[in-house]
Specification:
Radius of gyration: 33 Å
Largest sheet: 7 strands, antiparallel
Helix content: 40-55%
Strand content: 15-25%
Mean pLDDT: 77
Order of helices and strands: EEEEHEHHEEHHEHHEEHEEEHHHEE
Distance between the termini: 49 Å
Structural class: alpha+beta
Low-confidence stretches: 296-303, 334-348
């Protein structure tokens, strides 16, 4: 068996144990007359016939060791991308010509060999490409992480300084309040970016611990008291799964809860209500539970809730609901590593994109349901059976 070594532009002899130990079987240039003639032949060909003629005068000595060793025939192993190798065979002992039926058998073996070799080359190329992508992503992840942490520190410093100005004149306090709100939103975006940056191709990057989601909800609501009080929004929490723990990354799930409540706050009017319900489901979601955000689970092996127990966190508001065009965009939401079209991205918050990927990394899914003008409900389904 000869394999095409593209970087050396030669056919190199190989055996099942590796490179042929017999140095008499030399490599053959890919641009040789012999190789070109072999590639143009549709099946097995006699080596002595291919090496006949004036054009082969300079190559006969190169092929002489093959004939002396009893190899009488050769067949190119082709692929859509070109020659991948050559099969050289013969009877070193009897040195008898092969029958037509032998050629048919060799043709079959050659086709199988060509497919297998082409697959092997494709796997090697894919593995090399994957290593290069992973190396690039490591560098990118490091750069984004460092930049985000620096931005976060700067925003934190800015918020501290703004808070120290709240004792000034009332007119200035209005400006300070607006600036604090903007800084808080910027901090939320930075947190989302850092959370997504931590998650790898396989959903790695999670710091899992057994936790109560209710405690995370309480922490998030406590942080959001100024925003909620400003709009006089009520946020009753109905914990139907007390002391029920789930394996999660608390910091990242807190980002999800914060994003969903933020989304609800923007939808409700002054004095509105956002109800948060935490419950256990022993069944798969039904039509009344809504549709999956993005239409299907994310890219980390998440599954639409089916068997087993699930911890479900519902965030329901009595706001204006979701516009039908935005509903369609949410149902067809692309993964964050793709480039959604303008129609898909319209009306879709970055926080929902981040939340979808974080929940998917936990093996769960976000479902949503809304009747325009009658509020909306987003449900986070996290598996309890892992």
């Amino acid at each position: 068996l000869y394999l095409a070594a593209g970087e050396r532009k030669r056919l190199e002899p190989f055996r099942d144990s590796g490179t042929a130990a017999d140095q008499a079987l030399a490599s053959i240039p890919l641009d040789s007359v012999f190789v070109r003639g072999l590639a143009e032949t549709s099946g097995p060909a006699r080596i002595d016939e291919l090496s006949a003629g004036e054009a082969m005068a300079d190559e006969r000595e190169m092929l002489r060791p093959l004939l002396d060793a009893g190899y009488s025939h050769a067949m190119a192993l082709g692929a859509p991308g070109g020659l991948v190798g050559a099969l050289v065979y013969g009877d070193p002992v009897a040195r008898e010509a092969y029958l037509a039926s032998d050629d048919d058998c060799v043709r079959m073996l050659g086709r199988v060999a060509a497919v297998m070799m082409n697959n092997a080359y494709s796997l090697q190329a894919a593995a090399a490409s994957k290593r290069e992508i992973e190396r690039f992503l490591d560098v990118k992840r490091s750069c984004i992480g460092n930049a985000s942490r620096e931005l976060g520190a700067s925003v934190g410093f800015l918020r501290s300084n703004l808070c120290s100005l709240e004792g000034e004149q009332a007119v200035e306090n209005v400006v300070v309040g607006l600036a604090l709100g903007t800084a808080a939103r910027l901090q939320g975006t930075i947190d989302c970016l850092l959370a997504l940056n931590d998650i790898g191709f396989d959903g790695s990057g999670l710091t899992l611990e057994s936790s109560e989601v209710s405690s995370i909800v309480e922490d998030v609501l406590r942080e959001m008291i100024p925003e909620l009080e400003e709009k006089r929004i009520k946020t009753p929490v109905d914990d139907r799964a007390p002391y029920r723990n789930v394996l999660i990354d608390r910091r990242k799930i807190a980002i999800v809860i914060r994003n969903l409540i933020d989304n609800a706050v923007r939808s409700v009017a002054r004095g509105g209500v956002i109800t948060i319900t935490i419950r256990v489901s022993e069944r798969a979601p039904r039509e009344e539970d809504g549709v999956a955000l993005g239409g299907s689970p994310g890219r980390f092996g998440a599954r639409v809730p089916g068997g087993g127990s699930w911890l479900v966190t519902d965030v329901k508001d009595d706001g204006i609901g979701i516009h039908p065009a935005t509903m369609q965009a949410l149902a067809g939401l692309a993964a964050v590593d793709s480039s959604p079209s303008a129609g898909e991205a319209e009306g879709v918050e970055t926080g929902l994109l981040a939340s979808r990927e974080i929940v998917a990394a936990h093996g769960g899914t976000i479902f949503f349901r809304s009747d325009f003008g009658q509020g909306a409900r987003f449900s986070v389904w996290l598996p309890l059976d892992v």
